[in-house]
Amino acid sequence: MLRITELKLPINHADEALPAAVCKRLRITPRELVRYKVARRANDARDKMDIQLVYSVDVNVKDEPTVLARFRKDRHVNPTPDTRYVFVAKAPDGVELPRPVVVGAGPCGLFAGLILAQMGFRPIIVDRGKVVRERTKDTWGLWRRGVLDPESNVQFGEGGAGTFSDGKLWSQIQDPRHLGRKVLTEFVKAGAPEEI
After folding, report:
1. Is residue 119 part of a domain?
2. Residue pLDDT, tens place only, 53-96
3. 175 domain-assigned
4. Contact call for residues 61 and 2 (beta carbons, < 8 A)
5. What residues make up the domain containing 30?
6. Which of 67, 75, 101, 181 has the largest count of CB atoms under 10 Å?
7. Residue 56: phi, psi to the nearest 5?
8. Among 6, 5, 134, residue whose Cα is nearest residue 78
9. Quick one: pLDDT at residue 149?
């Protein structure tokens, strides 16, 4: 599979423009394009009169080695990188180990618990706050009435501090261990749309 990066199209392009642009970029016919999948899409709005969508596209083509050789000096056409998460350890079979404790039921704590469980370590997740529904009531009580519950507020409880924040997005560009991809893969497994 090949990855084409920096493939630009107008923001209002037709659906069929993307496979056509892939074929044009690789100098192949539509019959040689087996399939394609958008790996990344971003907006380039530096020129407000000409906003572009910038794609990274993973492509299967007939005779991939020949196509790849044709673009060996082109930094925007390469083999698709393997972005699968690789577990750093695995619990030994048949050995009863102490169970690791994860402190905090925010996004990091929940994913740490998930990864540890997937590696076979049977983690215990603890948090001093309440579940999200009760915690939300307590937090609104603080914001509206000034009543602080020291055990259930923005800082403590299921969902972590991000429950009451729009959060920060991470571009995943410098993510050699593919942690962000692992999170998105788990979201899709749990029912999120694949295009997230």
Report:
1. yes
2. 999 999 999 999 999 999 999 999 999 988 888 888 899 988 88
3. no
4. yes
5. 2-79
6. 67
7. -115, 125
8. 5
9. 86
